[in-house]
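Example (one chain per record):
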Amino acid sequence: MSQVREVSSLFKIARWGVLGAGVSYGFLRNRSLRSDAEARRIDEAYARKVALIEEAKKKFAEKKAAESGSSTSQKFDFDDPNFDADKWFSHIETKFQ
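Predicted structure:
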């Protein structure tokens, strides 16, 4: 018959202590990684919204410039020293097309 050795109490306590420390570390690390991922996801969503707003502003400015350039109510001052004849000709062309 073989004899069973008894494991010391110190070894049992150390083994359970290391297991508890590992579980605690895993829990805290998981919570930290999740909060970092959530913060990154929020930042990316915000950056995407800002980019969409900037793109919309740019398109609105282009549309507004196109509307103001082709409007029939545009007034030209022929006595102005900075009078742009090319702009006036293109306005006349768009008016009669």
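Caption: The longest helix spans residues 9-70.
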